[in-house]
Amino acid sequence: MKVKRFDDSIRRAALYSRVSTEEQAQHGVSLDAQKERLSRYAEENDLTVVDHYTDEGISARKKYTARPEFMRMIQDVRDGKIDVVLFVKLDRWFRNVSDYYEVQAILDKHKVQWLATDEDYDTTSANGRLALNIKLAIAQDESDRTSERIKFVFSNMVKDGHVISGSTPLGYKIENKRAVIDEQRANIARATFDKYIDCRSMKETARYIFTEYGVTIDAKSMKHMLTNKWYIGEAYGIENWCPAIIDKKTFELTASLLETRGQRTMTRTSNVYIFTGLMFCGECGRRMSTYSYANKKKDGTKGKTIIYYRCSARSMLQCEMQKQINQQKLEAWLVENLISEAKKYNIEIKMKKASVPKRAPDTSKIMAKIEKLKDLYLSDLIPKEIYERDYLSLKAELDEAKQRQEIREQEFINIKELKDFEQMYNSLTPESKKAFWGRTLKKIVVYKDGSFDVTFNEA
Ligand SMILES: [Zn+2]
């Protein structure tokens, strides 16, 4: 069945294609293939093509302002020439969350939509947008990890198993430019993982390693060590790149223990108020205002800046709300809760789905019955009372069937992706974090007892 994806107000399409230098050598992503796909799509959907905008030899990591054709298209958006932008896949558009939001703001302002012809994104629901955010975040994360530049320059060296940086993790040494196991020190690495799993404390593990082996590992290196994929043989995103010292199970267990430790390494948000405009006082309903102050260090110099949100009526004694919200704490709470909410949501659908019988009543059959009933009444074969009574019961049946239908169609949120999301989030710049929350959340209401109500953005 062909689904009409546009309403009649959408007529003029801009077709955007992009290929990076490295991709030019690969199959399937060629500019011609992209252009052909887009032209066909426009034709099938009765769209008028405004123009082809084609950036060649340009990486998605580059700031969008460095893409000449992209900028020409943005100008046409501003001039009101475009209703919808088509591209093949999201990665042709952006791999960078903050660029995405900046351009989205321009498109929103000019009521321009976008559509990926070969992928399905629902940007009209909060869940759909959350999924999109996560997808973008992961695309960025991936491109950060194996950045195209590094891949391009070093790909051959890495493929041959050559060590790029001079240093190797504890337990490895370099021989003929390759990483090999240094048996004696590998035992220290193994002992570190084992001890950590036993005691679940990095401090205690460090003490143990020092007494047993005379090796000092500070807290930062310890964390780095316990999460370093070299130990399972993976480096530069390539599996079996070097010999493994730790088996995968041990490594995964360690990772999950580290994660539940609850200690978070948030990147500092310095002076950016990342929740501006989103915070409301639960007592009087007013918007909350921000204030910050810098802790003074012992020597009198400025220390870390702390950001707070508080009710704007507080100082005028018009509101009893005394609670002040620390931004850093709120941020940590939200990230954690976004994930636990998603898990709760999954459990909820699971329970709902389990309670729905496999063979739910067919809505079209019920609708046919309603039609029939109406015919009977209109032909004077049944009195109005009977018609009313039966109509109401059929209507209730129909509503229930529709609801069941909806439950069956609800989808689970991918928890693995959410874990990647947390990592990605921590690597964002304060400005991108602000953009992220601004698009994801509608508002955060804070109550006297310190509890929050968080509302997600609807369409
Ligand atoms: Zn208030």
Name the descriptors.
459 residues; alpha/beta; Rossmann fold; Hect, E3 ligase catalytic domain fold; 4-stranded parallel sheet; 3-stranded mixed sheet; binds zinc ion
Identify every distinct bound molecule in the structure, by name, code or SMILES: zinc ion
Structurally, how many domains make up the residues? Answer: 4
Radius of gyration, in Å, reads 28 Å
Q: What is the first-to-last residue Cα distance?
A: 26 Å
Strand % is: 5-15%
Query: What's the main sheet like?
Result: 4 strands, parallel
Structural class: alpha/beta
Give the neighbour order of strands across the main sheet.
2-1-3-4
Care to give the gist of this entry?
With 459 residues, the chain is an alpha/beta fold. It is 48% helix and 15% strand.
Structural summary, described in words:
The chain folds into four domains: 12-145, Resolvase, N-terminal catalytic domain (Rossmann fold, 3-Layer(aba) Sandwich); 160-260, Hect, E3 ligase catalytic domain fold, CATH 3.90.1750.20; 272-358 and 409-459, no CATH class; 359-408. The chain has helices at 31-44, 68-78, 90-93, 97-109, 126-145, 148-159, 183-199, 202-213, 219-226, 248-260, 327-355, 363-378, 384-409, 415-427, 430-440, and strands spanning 12-19, 48-56, 84-87, 113-116, 172-175, 178-181, 279-281, 288-296, 302-311, 325-326, 441-446, 452-456. The two termini are 26 Å apart. The longest helix is centred in the C-terminal third of the chain and has 29 residues, at 327-355. It has 459 residues and is of the alpha/beta class. Strand 8 and strand 9 (302-311) form a beta hairpin. The strands form four sheets. Strands 2-1-3-4 form a four-stranded parallel sheet, with helices on both faces. Strands 7-11-12 form a three-stranded mixed sheet. It has a three-stranded antiparallel sheet with strand order 8-9-10. The structure holds zinc ion. The site of zinc ion has 8 residues, from loops.
